[in-house]
Amino acid sequence: MTHRAKGWRPPVRRALEAADWLSLRAVWAGGVMLLAAAFTVSVDVIARKLFTVSLGGSDELSGYAFAIGTAWAFAFTLLRRVNVRVDALYQLLPGKLCALLDILALVALGAFVAYLARWSWEVLATSWALSAQSNSALKVPMWIPQSLWFAGLALFVVTLALLLARALGMLFSGDWAGVHELLGARSVREEAEDESGYARDLTRQGGKSR
């Protein structure tokens, strides 16, 4: 019995599935973090208005939450192909050219993010070496939010590398449609199908609740 008959999957594909699993949990964690920050800021504003009392540090903590939550959402956004792209002409181009442009765009994005992650590591290492703290009453050790921020960027870099490896494998095997499905900008039809599917799911859930 061959490996394929046993359900064998290429290592890159399995790694991408693991990255997708991790990115989904990361984006949920980032969302919870942002909701907690919004709640804290709201309570602080209400306390200041009604009782002239401030919780202190809510603005600082919300800034950390926004930076970390955003970084943790990058990989999920890329894997779901919901990142913003200018595709006015893209939709009119031949499929093979679109696939090449998709890979070129991924390489350019990867180079930028790798550069960003490299310097974010430098910032984190410096904060750790100097035992740097925030210039506020909270005195937050800066390596804590910076390490969480860097983790999101690192996941993004790894995901980009896996996607590029997968896309190049498809390209060399002549699977142009697969490259588009993996990396291509979402069409209006795909967006509409997703929205209609979401609406159907909500309708089913509403029917079951009754």
Task: Explain this structure.
This protein has one domain. It has six helices and no strands. The protein has helices at residues 11-51, 58-79, 95-130, 143-172, 176-183, 188-209. It is globular and about 65 Å long.
Question: Percentage of helical residues?
Answer: over 70%
Estimated share of beta-strand residues: under 5%
Report the biggest beta sheet as strand number plus sense, adding barrel if it closes: none
Number of strands: 0
What's the N-to-C terminus distance? Answer: 49 Å
- How would you spell out the order of helices and strands? HHHHHH
Number of helices: 6
Poorly predicted sequence stretches spanning 5 or more consecutive residues: 1-5
Shape: globular
Backbone structural class: mainly alpha
What number of domains?
A: 1
Overall radius of gyration = 22 Å
Indicate the mean pLDDT. 86
Topology, please?
Blueprint: H1 11-51, H2 58-79, H3 95-130, H4 143-172, H5 176-183, H6 188-209
Which short descriptors sum up this protein?
single chain; 210 residues; mainly alpha; 6 helices; disordered N terminus
Short description:
By secondary structure, the protein is mainly α. It has helices at residues 11-51, 58-79, 95-130, 143-172, 176-183, 188-209. It has one domain.
